[in-house]
Backbone:
């Protein structure tokens, strides 16, 4: 399998970054330059974003290098001079990074990350930094919306199967956790990041047994810790009654039915019926977990309708940020050795200079931000911190 | 950095797959079972899908294993018995895979992939297979739509910066190529898969020079092979005139201006003006490349309006399948030792049994498909081929 790893991540860039770098090399243009990574405007249906992805970006920068295999491939492409290729072979990232902390709210035009480095380095890392930061910021932002709509109920990231590839699987779980998810179903994300992992059972388990009640009994016996039964393989209300019967049968053995999950159908009405069935069976403590292509809008409606749901599994819409599956992050030259820089393309202008974002609160909540120059004095808490100097983190991850 | 690799990919699964497997282990339930991976219905705005992702899926299955670190992590979670963990430690994938070839059109209910394996193995691989196949199939399908709308003009994958993480970056480039892209800007995808890589220049290059004309001159001299200049950093028409002047100045040195790229503004009218400027400067052979959040609809309109464009760079909308960023693939138990199986959940029923898809053509084009049982005799070309037996590919990748 061809996996992106520390050994080849430097090649995960757009060809033009290297072509431009080759020209900078030929021209001996390598003075420090500052690039800001930001979104020009908030996407539709987003009033804020949650910064995420910084740790991965810093890992990448600390380990940035082109190994012999990478140089060999670049050489095979033709246009690069030996002088440039041997320069690349020795290149590491030696610059400075200022960034807004993961988990902070960010808004349009605010640099989530600002890189100051010799021009060649600063240019080549563009594509990776955009890929890393904008994707994770988008997912953390979606998760924060789900958290707000859940009004204190917990939700779990169920998105792995619909995430865009393997790296998205683990990073979406992490970003969802940064944005407010309580746990993830993704085991590797648990192993990588120490996120709580959580799971129930699938329809296939029920179908692999001769009948639903037998499946429930077997699963509760074999997995007695915090068991959640899925009750919509055949008929939800019948499933709830079977789950209740099995729960009573196994209670004397100390096995508790923690919850039931409903994954299809008219969730609002089914949840009400199931709550009634469980309560009438003296299973008031058994939780109801809902899943099935949920998003923040459906969750908000379920809660507004006082549906007696306890928690949510949120998959596709969370892990792909379904209504806004791309965040238009950009990485723009804002200063170089000759001073502040700005671009004037139609609708794509940039604010020049090295910046600071000052966050002003009133009565404990965010009131407004001021985007100023780095050396300005302004009210408010400065959000951009120096997190990397000379290519090394200023504090451990 | 925490990267998904062959060493840890077995953990890239939902916890419930392992919980169910633990119960199957406890019950000694491990007879062969067949799971079909398919979409229940085509998404809106899709009349067909292009199968993609099989090679990555087979790589994963061939190398499937839980190493000591993985077992150690699973042990730390608590609920798994030592007997189950030592079973996992020895587990490989020993099953059979039948699949539709990458690049084939597929439709609703048709198994893109069908796994027959001992129940425990078949269950644990579900999450990865869905993640791998549905994402890449979605991107290849989007690329095919872009290819159709481009009517013979070429397009290049520019999506890396907006793809969902690093693995999505390389896999989207590959899937776009399967679906009809001519090349990718993604260097690592070129190195991994031998896809042609292609690039132009960025606004930041222009801004790093004292003026646009100087930037153009330097870039053409330093990168004389197939140079494409970006002309919308300041004013597009002025940019085109400057590009033309520099092209004439450098022509005596044998340096040719292959193309200009416009990335913002009113693309239709700007392209017409730029074509006129280039033609009047005797640069009829210089191509115009358009980019800037294009999708198949915009491309179709540009071509219907007879805009004199030569090729396209397509990024965000291609690499995220922007209008349909998730494909509702499912992986369902359809047969086991006791025979065919079906699920009856509301709106989520499944067709039981091991299947074959027969493709019937009329006059050289696809007329219809018949989904039958594997052992049925029917007209048409059978699409599902046995690609893995006993956990090994039936032919090299």
Residues:
């Amino acid at each position: 399998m061809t996996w992106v790893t520390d050994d080849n991540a430097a090649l995960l860039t757009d060809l033009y970054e290297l072509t431009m770098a080759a020209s900078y090399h030929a021209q001996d243009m390598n003075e420090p330059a500052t690039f800001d990574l930001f979104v020009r405007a908030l996407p539709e249906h987003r009033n804020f974003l949650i910064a995420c992805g910084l740790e991965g970006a810093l890992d990448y920068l600390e380990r940035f290098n082109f190994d012999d295999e990478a140089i060999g491939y670049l050489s095979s492409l033709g246009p690069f001079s030996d002088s440039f290729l041997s320069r690349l072979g020795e290149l590491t990232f030696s610059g400075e990074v200022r960034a807004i902390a993961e988990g902070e709210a960010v808004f349009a035009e605010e640099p989530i990350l600002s890189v100051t480095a010799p021009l060649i380095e600063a240019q080549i890392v563009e594509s990776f930094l955009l890929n890393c930061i904008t994707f994770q910021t988008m997912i953390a932002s979606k998760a924060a919306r789900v958290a707000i709509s859940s009004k204190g109920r917990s939700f779990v990231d169920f998105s792995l199967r619909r995430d865009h590839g393997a790296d998205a699987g683990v990073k979406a779980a992490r970003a969802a956790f940064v944005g407010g998810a309580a746990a993830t179903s993704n085991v590797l994300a648990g192993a990588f990041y120490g996120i709580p992992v959580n799971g129930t059972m699938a329809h296939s388990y029920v179908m692999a047994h001769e009948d639903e009640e037998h499946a429930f009994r077997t699963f509760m016996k074999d997995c007695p810790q915090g068991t959640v039964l899925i009750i919509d393989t055949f008929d939800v209300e019948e499933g709830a009654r079977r789950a209740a019967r099995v729960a009573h049968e196994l209670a004397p053995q100390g096995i508790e039915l923690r919850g039931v999950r409903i994954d299809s159908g008219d969730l609002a009405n089914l949840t009400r019926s199931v709550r009634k069935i469980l309560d009438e069976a003296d299973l008031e403590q058994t939780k109801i977990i809902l899943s099935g292509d949920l998003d923040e809008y459906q969750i908000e409606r379920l809660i507004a309708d006082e549906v007696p749901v306890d928690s949510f599994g949120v998959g596709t819409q969370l892990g792909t940020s379904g209504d806004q599956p791309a965040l238009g992050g950009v990485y723009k030259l804002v200063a170089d050795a000759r001073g502040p820089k700005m671009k004037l393309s139609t609708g794509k202008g940039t604010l020049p200079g090295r910046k600071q974002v000052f966050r002003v609160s009133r009565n404990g909540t965010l009131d407004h931000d001021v985007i100023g120059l780095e050396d300005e004095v302004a009210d408010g808490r400065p959000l951009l911190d120096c997190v990397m100097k000379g290519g090394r983190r200023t504090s451990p991850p």
Observations:
- Chain B touches chain A through 114 residues (CB under 8 Å).
